[in-house]
Amino acid sequence: MAKNNFSLLARLKSFRYAYNGVKIAWQEEHNFRVHCVAAVVALLLAYVLRISTYEWLAVIFSIGFVFVCELLNTALENLCDFVCPENNPNIKRIKDIAAAAVMISSLTALLTGLIIFIPKLISIARVYFF
Q1: Which of 39, 46, 51, 70 could bridge 55 with an S-S bond, Cβ 3.0-4.6 Å?
Q2: Residues near 113 by Cβ (< 8 Å), separated by ≥ 6?
Q3: pLDDT tens-digit profile of 42-77?
């Protein structure tokens, strides 16, 4: 077996594959675009509300968690459709479980956002409205 030498240029070029995956998800997956919009809203809200470093970490990890689940779900769905293009109850079961992972990650991110943002928004509302 031939030994491959490490090449920084080759590693950098490999990012094209990852970028292409994100591009495909953006173009073909409605839910991916919805998650992107939600992420932008959360990041803007975090910036405006000047959340703490630890809160930033929670928001960033939550966003990443949702994106990873969404991308893995998309990859798994594509693989299932490739392997078994016809309707199959076992494939449906696999797809449903993968979709559940996305749902759980999204709900986790939503709860994290609510825990971080609601108290800050209530404080602002008290200052300006009460």
Answers
A1: 51
A2: 42, 45, 59, 62
A3: 999 999 999 999 999 999 999 999 999 999 999 999
